[in-house]
Amino acid sequence: QVQLVESGGGLVQPGGSLRLSCVASGFTFRTYVMSWYRQAPGQERELVASILSPGGTTNYADSVKGRFTISRDNAKNTVYLQMNSLKPEDTALYFCNAGGYYWGQGTQVTVSS
After folding, report:
1. DSSP reduced 3-state for 88
2. Tens digit of pLDDT for each residue in 75-91?
């Protein structure tokens, strides 16, 4: 059974940082492209960042370039999203995705003073 379990969300002030984690199970993690998406209320889900394997090539939405970093640890079946210099417009439910097929339940990120 495929599972993607996100964690690390929370409430942070503008300019702060958070690190999201997504632990995967039930499939061959190292062979899948892993991505983070987000969805704000009333908006469509959007791709935030993705990372290939092997090689680790990354791709970012323009809105997060230079602030967010995606990484993966294939030995731990885990993908991370380091988020720095957070802005109120980063507030959303953040989802982990595997290969475009599998989704986690999401973790809420709220950026507010």
Report:
1. helix
2. 999 999 999 999 999 99
